[in-house]
Design goal:
Elements lengths: L48 H16 L3 E3 L6 E7 L5 E5 L2 H5 L23 E6 L19 E3 L2 E5 L9 H12 L6 E4 L2 E6 L2 H17 L10 E4 L2 E3 L2 E3 L3 E4 L1 H8 L7 H12 L8 H10 L17 H15 L4 E2 L7 E7 L3 E9 L7 E10 L7
Parallel strand pairs: 2-5
Antiparallel strand pairs: 1-6, 2-3, 4-8, 4-9, 5-6, 7-8, 10-11, 11-12, 12-13, 14-15, 15-16
Helix pairs in contact: 5-8, 7-8
């Protein structure tokens, strides 16, 4: 960090060595897998030749680090390969059958939008990413056999928390809340941490406190994914600034470049992209009314029925893209600012916008959030 860390008092950061996961465990958090019924099993899946060597190399790395070990378990789940953004692959277990017989952990996962509630008046931000975060949590010894994954090279089981297990996010979120409890200047969502401060000097102290907490619990940072002491950054799909939140330009561009969907499945994907930023868009339900009417009676995500587009529906599709492109900013809620709730309703939608008054201009107002919802009435637009 150029400003906050280049001071006379150094801030020691526990930087990772990418070749070593380092699964020391100076904490007592353990992941349990409580199941009902007999063990579930699966046959190994054949891998694509292009990913075979990469997946095998990753398994050998995990084996060398003690993350997995050879297994003789009566349980087995098939191997699933997930492509990563850096063009590498992440081999994980397809634990759907195991998850179906696992008791659910009800520990709450924070909402993606909640991190903005404490950002009013904050001007300096840092984003921290925990290195190999899930692998820092051991699995209870009696439950390790349940994680067994069948591969072309044999059966392996995880000794550490891994992706795909139904309660893995809950266990890790509980752990991170324990690590950072009582720190109002940071927000944690699984392995991503946002630190926010009003000044560089304050930010330096905040980061030092977070670093000390992480180091005390044996956690390391993935420095390549961290940002320190900047006026704006990307966090959980949003551009965070001192003024407020904005949609990411590349996400908006992806919506603008989206071609007219030919099938229900493609339309559902478009609406998913669009509605991630729904609270930025006024009258979203009204604009999307016709598009959602195509989804009635849908057979799910793989519904490949073709859409019979009308001129009105095409116009609604383009309008949805344009309204997202025209969004500017949602300001951070000011605790003491006067609030005004603006509501509206029609035959096919209801909506509301929460505004707060600005002290900079006497009559100006900034939107905190938009919220619209389709009603049960049929769309006639």
């Amino acid at each position: 960090m150029k400003n906050a860390l280049n001071r006379k008092t150094p801030v020691k950061v526990y930087i990772t060595n990418p070749s070593s996961i380092g699964v020391s465990t100076p904490h007592d958090t353990v992941h349990h897998i409580i199941t009902k019924g007999p063990p579930v099993t699966a046959r190994p899946r054949r891998l694509h030749p292009k990913s075979h060597d990469a997946v095998k190399a990753e398994f050998e790395f995990l084996l060398s680090q003690g993350i997995i070990r050879p297994s003789k378990s009566p349980w087995s789940s098939p191997l699933h390969v997930v492509p990563k953004q850096d063009s590498t692959v992440r081999p994980v277990g397809d634990y759907r059958r195991l998850n179906s017989v696992t008791e659910f952990d009800s520990y709450p996962i924070p909402h993606l939008h909640d991190f903005a509630h404490a950002l009013h008046g904050k001007t300096i931000f840092s984003k921290l990413d925990i290195f190999k975060a899930f692998h820092q949590i051991p699995i209870a010894e009696q439950d390790i056999p349940k994680t067994a994954v069948t591969t072309p090279w044999g059966l392996y089981e995880y000794t550490r928390l891994c992706f795909g297990l139904v309660n893995a996010p809950q266990t890790f979120m509980r752990f991170m809340h324990e690590v950072l409890r009582g720190l109002p200047f940071c927000y944690v969502y699984l392995d991503d941490i946002l630190c926010f401060s009003e000044s560089h000097e304050e930010h330096k102290g905040h980061l030092r406190t977070i670093f000390e907490r992480l180091q005390a619990h044996g956690l390391k940072l993935n420095i390549s994914k961290c940002e320190f002491g900047v006026p704006e950054l990307t966090f959980l799909g949003h551009l965070v600034t001192s003024q407020g939140l904005k949609p990411l330009p590349e996400k908006v561009d992806a919506v603008l470049q989206y071609k007219l969907p030919e099938t229900i499945a493609a339309l559902r994907k478009f609406l998913g992209l669009l509605n991630f930023y729904r609270r930025f868009v006024p009258k979203a339900a009204e604009h999307q009314c016709i598009l959602h009417s195509f989804l009635k009676g849908s057979k799910g995500k793989r519904d490949n029925r073709r859409i019979d587009w009308t001129p009105q529906a095409v116009a609604a599709f383009e309008k949805c893209k344009q309204t997202l492109a025209e969004t500017t900013l949602l300001c951070h809620p000011a605790p003491s600012a006067p609030l005004a709730l603006h509501v509206d309703a029609s035959d096919f939608a209801i909506g509301g916008a929460l505004h707060q008054s600005s002290t900079e201009k006497k009559f100006s107002q900034h939107c905190i959030t938009w919220h619209t919802q389709a009603s049960d009435a049929p769309c006639t637009c």
